[in-house]
């Protein structure tokens, strides 16, 4: 089971910063996950939200700001927003990389950088956008479909009650979307990671990675269910 650092080791360091990725590597991850956006001047930067005010001391949308402007912001503990190239440099010869495509307009540029940096074999591009995944696949990059439940906190009880009815439909929908996007892996949200779901996807020759798993109990349960990878904010929980 792959140990995947979610935004690095964001349970300990500011997510999607070089500091966070280095911490994840220190905690012996197999892979780190990051989120990619395209700047106004066509550079790929790594942060979780398109609205920079959510994770930095700045304001505005990534698409409306240049790399130089973004570099002036504090992404936490004095860290700067990194570029994809910088993240690859940190990961090289240390761990693999999962790049999540948040907006379709960044997919082509992300793929170009991965190829240029000769990091194709070490990278998975993940998205819920079929077109982004198909484009990456053409360049020889591994791809994964992201799928999550639409459950809100308010709807969790109803979801639990109706799980028996919902999951058979969801299984077929995930399988169809995976086939349409021509992927070999599915990144599944934790509420959907049931024994039946994992068994069904494995039976259909799809690897299953689950996010975001931040309890030791869930990590142990998923290991017993033979999932292929787990995204976590706390990579050291695997050793405990």
SSE topology sketch:
Blueprint: E1 2-6, H1 18-26, E2 31-38, E3 44-46, H2 67-71, H3 84-91, E4 96-101, H4 107-116, E5 123-127, H5 130-138, E6 142-147, H6 156-181, E7 185-189, H7 195-203, E8 207-211, H8 216-224, E9 229-232
Helix pairs in contact: 1-3
Strand order of the main beta sheet, please? 1-2-4-5-6-7-8-9
Number of strands: 9
Termini Cα gap: 15 Å
Determine the fraction of residues in helical runs and give it as a percent range.
25-40%
What is the correct CATH architecture?
Alpha-Beta Barrel
- Outline the low-pLDDT stretches: 151-157
Would you tell me which CATH topology applies?
A: TIM Barrel
CATH superfamily: Phosphatidylinositol (PI) phosphodiesterase
- Biggest sheet, open or closed, and with what strands and sense? 8 strands, parallel, barrel
Strand portion = 15-25%
| The top level CATH class name | Alpha Beta
Helix/strand order: EHEEHHEHEHEHEHEHE
Architecture overview:
This protein has 240 residues and is α/β, with parallel strands linked by helices. The protein has one domain (2-239): Phosphatidylinositol (PI) phosphodiesterase (TIM Barrel, Alpha-Beta Barrel). The protein contains eight helices and nine strands. It has helices at residues 18-26, 67-71, 84-91, 107-116, 130-138, 156-181, 195-203, 216-224, and strands at 2-6, 31-38, 44-46, 96-101, 123-127, 142-147, 185-189, 207-211, 229-232. Strands 1-2-4-5-6-7-8-9 form an eight-stranded parallel beta barrel, surrounded by six helices. Helix 1 (18-26) packs parallel to helix 3 (84-91). The radius of gyration is 18 Å and the shape is globular. It starts with a strand and ends in an 8-residue tail after the last strand.
């Amino acid at each position: 089971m792959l140990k995947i650092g979610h935004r690095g080791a964001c349970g300990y360091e500011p997510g999607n910063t070089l500091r966070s990725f280095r911490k994840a590597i220190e905690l012996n991850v197999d892979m780190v996950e990051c989120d990619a956006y395209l700047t106004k001047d066509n550079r790929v930067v790594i942060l979780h939200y398109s609205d920079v005010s959510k994770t930095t001391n700045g304001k505005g949308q990534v698409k409306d700001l240049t790399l130089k402007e973004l570099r002036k912001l504090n992404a936490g503990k004095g860290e700067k927003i990194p570029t994809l190239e910088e993240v690859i440099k940190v990961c090289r010869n240390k761990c693999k990389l999962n790049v999540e495509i948040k907006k379709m307009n960044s997919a082509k540029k992300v793929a170009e950088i991965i190829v240029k940096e000769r990091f194709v074999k070490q990278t998975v591009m993940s998205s819920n956008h079929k077109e982004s995944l198909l484009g990456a696949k053409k360049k020889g990059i591994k791809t994964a479909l992201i799928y999550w439940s639409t459950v809100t906190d308010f709807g969790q009880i109803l979801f639990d009650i109706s799980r028996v009815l919902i999951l058979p439909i969801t299984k077929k929908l995930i399988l169809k979307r995976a086939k349409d996007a021509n992927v070999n892996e599915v990144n599944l949200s934790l509420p959907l990671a049931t024994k039946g779901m994992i068994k069904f996807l494995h039976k259909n020759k799809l690897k299953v990675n689950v996010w975001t798993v931040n309890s030791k109990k869930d990590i142990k349960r998923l290991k017993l269910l033979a999932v292929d990878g787990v995204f976590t904010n706390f990579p050291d929980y695997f050793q405990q």
